[in-house]
Amino acid sequence: MNEQIIRDVVGELKDPFLHRTLAETDGIVSVTVKPEKQHVSVKLAIAKINTAEQMTLQMKVVEVIKAAGADSVGIRFEELPAETLEKFRGTATESEAQDLLSPLNNIEFISIASGKGGVGKSTVSVNLAVGLARLGKKVGLIDADIYGFSVPDMMGITELPVIRENRIIPVERFGVKVISMGFFVEDNAPVVWRGPMLGKVLDQFFRDVDWGDLDYLILDLPPGTGDVALDIHQMIPASKEIVVTTPHPTAAFVAARAGAMALQTDHTLLGVIENMAWFQSQSTGEKEYVFGKGGGTRLAEELRTELLGQIPLGQPDWNETDFAPSVYAKDHPIGQTYATIAQEIIDKTSK
Questions:
Q1: pTM of the predicted protein model
Q2: How many other C-beta atoms lie within 10 A of the C-beta of residue 192?
Q3: Same domain for 105 and 82
Q4: Burial zone of 184 (CB within 10 Å; 0-12 exposed, 13-18 middle, 19+ buried)
Q5: For FRET with 350, which of 42, 65, 242, 335 sits at 20 to 30 Å CA-CA?
Q6: What is the separation of C-alpha 86 from the centre of its chain, rounded to a whole number of angstroms?
Q7: Which pLDDT tens digit goes with each residue over 279-310?
């Protein structure tokens, strides 16, 4: 038993996310062999640590090293450097590309978060998704607000997903592929499930839905920093996060927690959107700052990010033939504001 033998046997094992051998990914950082004690210590780098997949790989590593003659094994894990991940990104096979959580995908995850409910986070999620689709991007939208799902109603979706070859086919509306807990709950019943059950549903939204080819996947997160939001932050390989607030100082203060959570879970803050920024009178054109001023700017400064835009209070123009109560038309002034923010998101994520 020597270092090269250990490198050979461990090197044949695959990174659970990249689906490439540890030899191919240079994932064997160090090997220490103590023949007198029949002990081997290895340090391994994989695409994502602290996951169930890491535990499975750990058991395999122990198995092959003991088969090579060791009595005891010590293992430490770290994450592969960003430049190594970048080398493999976009090289997914067709089957691997179906796994949205694989680092091999080129999909941009955009998480829409808020510190509290009632600030219009879902309205922002819906209109940003539609705005990106109008700019020619392939967009998916996960209504991850499991307890407060509202996206299907907001978008005027009346049909349900279908199952095809054991895959869930999302509903498409305004060029956006949508999946929501609302599709699987009868008659607007309350969701009274506990955390582990919700985690399985979220995992299904990522792994069992046939999303096809996407440029962006928008995640409408639950408000606050609870278990479901934390689960999502830990599930996805990386995401850009947008924090939604109103101008009110208290709303901005609470929203800061959601932004801090993104940073603590190694996700990137894309910026802040201030919703309900003002009400503009149709008769006089005068702006009334119903919820005060400055909350979005202060929040952006506190989180050291930028204010992506301000959305005034308003209501989309409804019609009976294409009813979608929360989607602004392309030529509506607020629809144009969302289009501007969507273009800014494209510019930022394409750098």
A1: 0.78
A2: 7
A3: no
A4: middle
A5: 335
A6: 18
A7: 988 888 889 999 888 889 988 888 888 999 99
